[in-house]
UniProtKB/TrEMBL annotation:
Location of this chain's protein in the cell: Nucleus
CDD domains the record matches: RNase_PH_RRP46
Gene source species: Apatococcus lobatus
Name of the protein: Exoribonuclease phosphorolytic domain-containing protein
Main location: nucleus
GO MF: RNA binding
Sequence similarity: Belongs to the RNase PH family.
GO CC aspect terms: cytoplasmic exosome (RNase complex); nuclear exosome (RNase complex); nucleolus
């Protein structure tokens, strides 16, 4: 099957990443997956109000804003997914009684917006120099009505799909110089809608891991060029 621009079923769209766009934020990043574009900004670690603070670790707050309209139930679920992902990699114990706020604004949604938002959040956290023991990458996969697996679907493909899954994998720098970053063997987080069989989920997880490896390669190369 060929898709938009003769793209194969497991091919990612063009990747673009821009950092340090907002001067008043501690870190910011704009991430593109094809025409899908998400802006993320990070504030903190900074002091927080007494009723929210945790004496043992930093509190993570995520605000997910859709492209148009006000946030609803779906956006609250997406905030929860992103917050749990960040809590799993940030060294929150280093900043007790502090708050790390991540604000995500969807600028253009042409499919895979949640995955794009997760990637933007990771890049913004790096730009803010928030200490993390691992980075993370996310990709969206969908199963068509005919049972075919598509990676990084467009909005049209998502609407026509039987199931849509957003997978998050962690990555760490390779111990050998010039080697590729190492992707976790299983997703640390997943968010799904629709219905798929266990076999279809496993196939999506494998395809998602391969795609996240390419995303991790891109992120490490982008950061290396930026810091150089």
């Amino acid at each position: 099957m060929t898709r938009d621009g003769e793209r194969s079923p497991r091919q990612l769209r063009n990747l673009v990443c821009e950092r340090s766009l907002l001067h008043r934020a501690d870190g910011s990043a704009k991430f593109f997956l094809g025409k899908t574009c998400v802006l993320a900004c990070v504030y903190g670690p900074t002091s927080t109000v007494t009723r929210k603070e945790n004496a043992e670790q930093a509190v993570i707050e995520v605000n997910y804003r859709p492209m148009a309209g006000i946030a609803g139930t779906q956006e609250r679920q997406q905030e929860h997914l992103i917050r749990r992902t960040i809590e799993g990699v940030v060294l929150v114990a280093l900043h007790p009684r502090a708050c790390i706020s991540v604000i995500i604004q969807v600028l253009e949604d042409n499919g895979s917006a949640l995955a794009c938002a997760v990637n933007a959040a990771c890049t913004a956290l790096v730009d803010a120099a928030v200490p993390m023991h691992r980075l993370f990458a996310s990709v969206c996969c969908c199963t068509t009505q005919d049972g075919e697996l598509l990676v990084d679907p467009s909005s049209t493909e998502e609407q026509e799909a039987a199931a849509v899954l957003t997978l998050v994998y962690t990555s760490r720098r390779a111990e050998v110089e010039a080697a590729r970053p190492s992707i976790s063997s299983a997703p640390m987080m997943s968010f799904s809608s629709g219905q798929c069989t266990p076999q279809q989920y496993l196939l999506a997880a494998l395809a998602g891991r391969e795609a996240c490896q390419r995303l991790a390669d891109f992120s490490y190369l982008s950061l290396h060029k930026s810091f150089s």
